[in-house]
Input
Amino acid sequence: MNPVDLTPLYRSSIGFDRLGALIDNALSSDHASVGYPPYNIEVLDENRYAITVAVAGFTEDELDIQVEKNVLTICGKKPNKEERKYLYQGIANRSFERKFNLADFVKVTGADLNNGLLMISLVKEIPEAMKPKTIMINQKQPALEHAAEDNAA
Output
């Protein structure tokens, strides 16, 4: 598969160097493991998000949540227990690793495990220095006064 050419984007945008790596990673990811475990990504309000992962059968001790370099990683590891003999095994009992790329200024604020659902809370906290500011245009009053003097003469 050919990588996506983002040259036109780079001509008019600054600071999106990571975008190319994200797109390449998404296109080349292993599609076999993409479906397990199932998850939802919710927008709760303008700056709050939640990721809910179905982790039925996993305990808190078997789950590991880490954030490193704007990547949230959720791992589930099942310990090797005694072998069981199943007539049918429909409940997935396998280890997993799921990664989510986080935008700048998105922070993980907490995680809850309830009824087999792991809910991770995220918030986007933009620093004051990065928030949009309105710049006022200075009007030169002397130019108006000068025009008023010309009309009086």
